[in-house]
Amino acid sequence: MGKFSFLNDPEQVKRENKRYEQQKLKREANSLAMEAVRLSQSNHIDQAREKFSEVLKIDMNNIITYRHLLLMSMDETNSHDSWGYWNKLAEKDPKNVETWLLKGLVEKKYNKLDSAVENI
Hints:
By secondary structure, the chain is mostly helical. It has one domain (about 10-115): Alpha Horseshoe (Serine Threonine Protein Phosphatase 5, Tetratricopeptide repeat). It has helices spanning about 10-40, 45-60, 65-75, 80-90, 95-110. α4 (about 80-90) runs antiparallel to α5 (about 95-110). The longest helix is centred in the first third of the chain and has 32 residues, at about 10-40.
């Protein structure tokens, strides 16, 4: 069987096309997310939020977006949004160390640190 033998299987072609389209959308979402990050770093917060909204319309699982929305909400001292974004992040990327580092930052910011002493 050759490299392109899957072309004889219409179902495989559909799967490959779908996978290609998903990758293309993911790249587009990541590009928009990075543009939003640059906007937020330049203190264009409202424009950054708009871009992040566009990203989530394309890719509801975009980790970059949830991380930066979390950080932006912490800068605004918005506890409710911070925890909401952290919960989304934990749902989407629970095994990433940065997710748990961000939880510690949120807890510290809002004085909700977990404490082993509380469990004694």
